């Protein structure tokens, strides 16, 4: 059977693997440049994928460490509160935890309600009869962060160093504002408006339970 050029070409087109299978017999050498280019491209894709996975893993580890640190601080705060037997001791435990566990030494706790029992309230904590503070905090239903404070609230930190940002943390007992924890920081961006407040909300709940028990206030 005679083979012409067109017949051979048609066969090769229909069986492209033929040239690769018989390359050595036919003396055909693959284009190494294209092979290397393809391999390099594959390596680059794999490298990029590996780098993305490494970055994601690093972020997960950072998040896990941050969560661990947050949990440890909250536990330390609660342990200090549990060790207190009086309102005065409780306030001191809260202050110690803020200063030592959270590195937040500039703070003030004010009680906005009188006790329902005979619990002794240190003078420095009392604000149940302070009409200016009651007005300033009357609508404080959730943790509030920012760079500005109402004048009567700012006066509570007058003896502190210049502070740039603040957290006002209400402590509610049912529908009653039991106390407010005011914290300041030198950094104006520390207590910013978009700061997550889950942690401080838990702290407020712990204070509510402890103070309510000591002051004879129902939940």
Automatic annotation (TrEMBL):
Naturally occurring in which organism (per UniProt): Paralysiella testudinis
One Pfam family matching this protein: DUF484
Alphabetized PANTHER family for the sequence: DUF484 DOMAIN-CONTAINING PROTEIN
Protein name: DUF484 family protein
